[in-house]
Amino acid sequence: MRLSISSIERPPGPHSILPEKLLREFMRDPIKTLMKIAYTYGDISHFKFGRQHVYLFNDPEYIEDVLIRNYKNFIKSRGLRVSKRLLGEGLVTSEGKYHDRQRRIIQPAFHPNLIETYGQIMTDYAQRMCQRWKDGMTLDIHKEMMHVTLAIISKAVLGSDVKLEKDNEVGNALLVCMEYFNRLQMPFGELIEKIPILPINKGFQRAKMSLDSIVYNMIKEHRNNESRGVRVAEGDLLYTLLQAQDTEAGIKRMNDTQLRDEVMTIFLAGHETTANALTWTFYLLSQNPTVEDKMYEELCSVLGDGDADKGNSSYNSRIPTIEDVPKLEYTEKVFRESMRLYPPVWGIGRQAINDYKVSKYVIPAGSVIFMSQYVMHRNPRYYSDPDIFYPDRWSKETMLQLPRFSYFPFGGGIRGCIGESFAWMEGILLLAMIYHQWKMHHDPVHRVGLQPLITLRPKYGMRMKLEQRKERSNN
Known about the structure:
Elements: H1 21-28, H2 30-41, E1 44-49, E2 52-57, H3 60-69, E3 74-76, H4 78-82, H5 84-87, H6 96-106, H7 112-116, H8 119-132, E4 138-140, H9 141-158, H10 164-184, H11 189-193, H12 199-227, H13 237-243, H14 256-287, H15 289-303, H16 329-341, E5 348-352, E6 356-358, E7 361-363, E8 368-371, H17 373-376, H18 396-401, H19 420-437, E9 438-442, E10 450-452, E11 456-458, E12 463-468
Helix pairs in contact: 1-2, 8-9, 8-19, 9-10, 9-14, 10-12, 12-14, 14-16, 14-19, 15-16
């Protein structure tokens, strides 16, 4: 039985006599708006965007209940449904039994043993990037991270090298798509799609066609190789998906459209998020020299510092491998703390299918529940000095004591990021690879700002001056 509007007791929240004032504030600066609401009204708050009722959850138990215990009562909110224009019915956007079946099919492709085989790809491409850099050069490290993570995901997923000109084409196409999705979520965004002659629609269609062409060509090439019995020695994730089947449902293979949707999803999620996370990490390290020095000492301890006077060739600096990852404990803390302050995905939305009870409130069906990693990760109830970059806060004891959803940079539950282990390994290996060879200085005149699209980008890029590490000696 649906609740009558008059019987509903709503949580506290912002109200304004000016129509759409809050919505305009949110569109101008969504993170600042959500932070203000959370710290003014507490663990659960209510507000309206037009006719849409929205509930902001800022309590780990409430978030866990939505994402884990009662996930079947929710569908993804409009933002991700809009993303279907590009991602189709991939894991990020699909719902219900279809999503569950696709996840079962894809899960083996992300088995830890298979993920580990990609470690060499990650360090190879990072090394190529570092070899192009010059001492004293100033560059946009965000663009560099976008290039290298795109190259890595292309090789790991598609088994293909992306040439620089194609790299730029893919990166530009993805940015056009994300900005398009952002526009569609604004007031009257639905009207944009209904006017196909608008430049923004034409731009999106061109970008989508470009990405589709790349992915479908690779699927065709893989199918042709398979029919001829040709396979690269190390394999790739697309090949694994071609072989995947759902024995439970008796379905053996994905068709080209299903493959395209999953590859496109992995393609987008697998490079954009990691590139952003690494960019913010480099920025934080440049602002915190004590943390940077401590991480560099660990890298030298594990990978060597190039000191030929030691008389032990095994001590000479080397490229990190997957076996080094467990030893890079402080480096892992640095990456973890960076994703606390600047989570790659900054918010998750769900829409209630049925009336939903939380605390003393009943949330009516059709309402949107929003959960923000950015807001939750800066909750002073769980993090002392939450705005301070302090990797040492991540002791084993602290991690055991923190509620599960006080930290969730990769989401959680049945819809959590399937590539989380890939992202952790890539982030740590690239941090180790790059910072062992290079020190970065943030350009002091460069403006730093947030651009919260689907992911949390640096709005103006991230200009860094490179300083090449010198070999250390005892003299």
